[in-house]
Amino acid sequence: MKKIVITLAFALSLMHAKAQTENNTTKYNKWSVELAGGVNKPQKPFTDNYFTSTPSPWVGDLGVRYMFNNKFGLKADFGYNSLTNKNNSLDFDSKYYRADLQAVANLGRIMNFETWTNTIGLLGHAGFGVAQLENKDLHVKDRMGNFITGITGQIKLSNRIALTGDLSAIFNASQDLTFDGAAAPGNRGFSGILFNGTVGLNVYLGKNAKHADWIIISDNTDIAALESKVANLEELVKQTPKQVIVEKPVTTTVLNDKDVVKEMINDKYYSVYFDFNKATPIENSTAAIDVVLNYLRKNPSASLDLVGYADQVGSDAYNEKLSTTRANNVKTIFEKAGIASSRLNVVAQGADTSIQKDSEEARRLARRVTFKVK
User: Fold this and answer.
1) How far apart are CA 41 and CA 33, in angstroms?
2) Which of 21, 205, 235, 259 is the most exposed place for a label (fewest CB within 10 A)?
3) What is the DSSP secondary-structure string of 304-319?
4) Tens-digit pLDDT profile for residues 271-286
């Protein structure tokens, strides 16, 4: 009996944690290929009376990215720019090639975009590389170093593909030619400036269902809390005698005159969780509802408080209304299962201010309905 109680409590607790977020053992894909094309605007240096359109075609970009986790990674990318004159400019035709190694930050995960969207992402990137500017008509080439930085918006089309839009700025060091191909000696700093705007695709590689760009990883706080609950339950069971008394007809299991299931319900081992700004319980919460429902059926004299909560995002009035709606929706589930409405009491607590506001993992645990058996 001891092992069964502990095992059930631990399993159900893990289900609750899984329902809120992906934990640190979740497997996800880390590699992706990035393809993009678009327009550019070389800013300087130019010889007088030479200039391009705003924007000017064309840009091509190919990248390979590896994410160390769901927030940070590295990518190597290769770019091509065609630089040609605008109608009122003197004629020129230059090509710009580059190769860069860049650090990548998944700003969507860092800024908790998942609290309001599951399909929009944002990446920041910056790094250094080498480049070559050449003009075949003038038979000149210029090799230089560069620094590139930019931001990439994402729209997830599927677990394998995301649509991207990128804006990048490239700063060339020691650029000894103008973009039109004329000599520009003495430029030792980051004197060349080039802007790129592209639209493309991220293609995610790997055998797992999701990529690091879209996975949510919890910290160890949630698991530590679960382990603490299990340890407390284990200590409770150790203090009880081995004899188990079962009443007939079966109503509940009693250990040393203690109603263990009731205590577990009232100690919030069984809670119903909700997605952000939603009032419908998530699928994984059905296990907790089943436990409480079975208890009420086996104990017809028991009544139940359904205590609704929201996280701290939003106004007090809105969170009060949302917590009430969540508790009422769970009440409706019990009523449809045959529990009399007179046995069910809704308590709206509004925002749970005891849970850390700036932690997405904590806010996931705040969005819940708990129970108190009376």
Assistant:
1) 25
2) 235
3) EEEEEEE-SSS-HHHH
4) 999 999 899 999 888 8
My answer on whether 64 and 186 are in the same domain is: yes
Cβ atoms < 10 Å from Cβ of 246: 10
Residue count of the chain, please give it.
374
307, two tokens: 């205590």
> Which of 182, 186, 187, 194 has its CA nearest to residue 46?
182
Q: Which of the pair, 352 or 130, is modelled with greater confidence?
A: 130
The CATH number given to whatever domain includes residue 260 is: 3.30.1330.60
Q: What is the model's pLDDT at position 211?
A: 95
Q: Name which of 143, 145, 103 is nearest 124 in CA terms.
A: 103
Regarding whether 140 and 112 lie in a shared domain, the answer is yes
**Could you give the CA distance from residue 163 to residue 158 in angstroms, rounded to a whole number?**
10
Residue span of the structural domain in which 191 resides: 31-205
- For residue 207, CA distances in Å to 71, 160, 211 come to 20, 10, 10
Structural contact between residues 66 and 31, judged by C-beta atoms closer than 8 angstroms: yes
- 170 and 239 in a single domain? The answer is no
Same domain, 69 and 191: yes
Whether 335 and 270 have beta carbons less than 8 Å apart is answered as: no
Q: Which two tokens stand for residue 253?
A: 């299991």
Q: What is the pLDDT of residues 44-76, one digit of tens each?
A: 999 999 999 989 999 999 999 999 999 999 999
Nearest alpha-carbon partner for 75 in 123, 26, 120, 27: 123
Is the previous residue joined to 45 through a cis bond, with omega within 30 degrees of 0? yes
CATH number of residue 137's parent domain: 2.40.160.20
Phi, psi of 91 (to 5 degrees): -70, 140
Paired tokens of 97: 């090639």
Is residue 222's pLDDT more than 80? no
Helices 316-336 and 286-298, axial angle in degrees (round to 10) = 60
